[in-house]
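Reminder to self: tokens first, then the designed residues, so the page reads top to bottom the way the pipeline ran.
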């Protein structure tokens, strides 16, 4: 197996001159896979967002299927005369595809094309499965590559999970966060409780309800809607609220992701807000660790991830979300924009000076907490006041005062 500079498999050689090769973007996203058989015939698959094309030898690329949030739209014809067929995925609480159905010949009755049952770490129970579909999106709803008997599932940021052993074949890119367990372990060795959507970080499988309640409370305030709006795109609907225009941060390539993480992962922290350079030359990288050689040639793409600790009440999580949003995430985004504005105005003497400002945007939590303690962050003060008025309680004010006392 040959690996690229991002520690992702680039070429796998099998017996009898068989070979599988992969092509990735700079952020580690797989965009092509090529299987070469012993007779030198080839089959290449191209991944273009939700569109998946296939090419046999040097023939024309043909649209094979389109991925949707609920399954696949298959093309049973060719590019000139497509014949469409829907496949719908039915998943379990972990996101595993358990059943694939398609509209049957009788209206209102579905036809079953695939049934999958798994052992806890994802290996299929061969005697408990049924298949007349070529669908390979199975465990974790990730694509299984079992060509030449490989048996790897591709998770995006970490592309080679092997369910037969329940391990990854590459080191965890977030290993420093999970120093208490092997960097090859899948889901903290507890795949019934945790999920790992992209091979980078682990989350509770049933986190959605508490997270959604906290977000709904946050969005009930004008300050919360304004914050989310800075990251939203025009027409996007979040927590039932439609944003009419693209926000200031979104226009500058800054995304936002809200997650819930386990107590084991978060420790004593109720929440964190960390900003990453998504398209650095060395992959997804935290701002404080970015170096000159990591900077991409085109537009920089950033993402701020706000983590909330699982197991807290929706009210407490809503306050913590406000803290991470107004005390940290807003400041990170504003410093990023200032750094890029200075760069565009040629106010830096060296690229190194620009990189230092990127690093500092993720390193000034102490100063941010000092501003919180001294009532200098107007947005969180207004948020706390709005939440108290909306819910007719002084709970948020008490949390705010307790929060300030820690610093």
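Designed residues (407 positions):
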């Amino acid at each position: 197996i040959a690996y690229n500079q991002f520690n992702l498999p680039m070429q796998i050689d099998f017996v009898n001159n068989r070979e599988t090769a992969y092509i990735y973007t700079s952020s580690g996203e797989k965009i092509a896979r090529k299987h070469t058989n012993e007779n030198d015939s080839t089959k290449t698959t191209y991944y273009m967002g939700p569109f998946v094309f296939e090419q046999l030898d040097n023939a024309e690329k043909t649209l094979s299927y389109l991925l949707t949030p609920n399954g696949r739209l298959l093309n049973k014809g060719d590019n000139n005369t497509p014949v469409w067929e829907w496949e719908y995925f039915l998943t379990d609480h972990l996101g595993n595809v358990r059943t694939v159905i398609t509209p049957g010949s009788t209206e209102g009755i579905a036809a079953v094309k695939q049934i999958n049952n798994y052992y806890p770490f994802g290996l299929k129970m061969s005697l408990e499965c049924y298949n007349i579909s070529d669908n390979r999106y199975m465990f974790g709803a990730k694509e299984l590559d079992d060509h030449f008997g490989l048996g790897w599932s591709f998770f995006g940021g970490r592309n080679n999970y092997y369910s037969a052993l329940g391990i990854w074949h590459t080191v965890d890119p977030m290993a420093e966060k999970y120093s208490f367990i092997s960097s090859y372990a899948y889901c903290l060795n507890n795949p019934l409780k945790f999920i790992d959507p992209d091979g980078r970080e682990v989350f509770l499988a049933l986190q959605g309800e508490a997270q959604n309640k906290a977000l709904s409370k946050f969005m009930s305030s004008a300050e919360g809607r304004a914050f989310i709006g800075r990251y939203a795109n025009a027409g996007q609907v979040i927590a039932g609220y439609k944003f009419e225009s693209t926000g200031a941060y979104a226009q500058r390539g800054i995304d936002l992701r809200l997650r819930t993480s386990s107590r084991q992962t978060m420790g004593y922290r109720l929440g964190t807000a960390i900003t990453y350079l998504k398209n650095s030359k060395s992959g997804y990288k935290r701002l404080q660790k970015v170096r000159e050689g990591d900077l991409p040639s085109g537009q920089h793409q950033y993402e701020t991830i706000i983590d909330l600790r699982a197991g807290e009440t929706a009210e407490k999580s809503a306050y913590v979300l406000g803290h991470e949003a107004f005390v940290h995430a807003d400041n990170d985004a504003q410093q990023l924009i200032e750094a890029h504005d200075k760069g565009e105005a040629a106010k830096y003497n060296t690229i190194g000076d620009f990189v230092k400002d990127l690093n500092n945007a993720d390193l000034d939590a102490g100063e941010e907490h000092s501003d919180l303690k001294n009532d200098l962050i107007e947005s969180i003060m207004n948020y706390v006041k709005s939440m108290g008025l909306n819910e007719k309680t002084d709970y948020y004010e008490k949390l705010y005062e307790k929060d300030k006392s820690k610093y």
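The chain has a mean pLDDT of 89.
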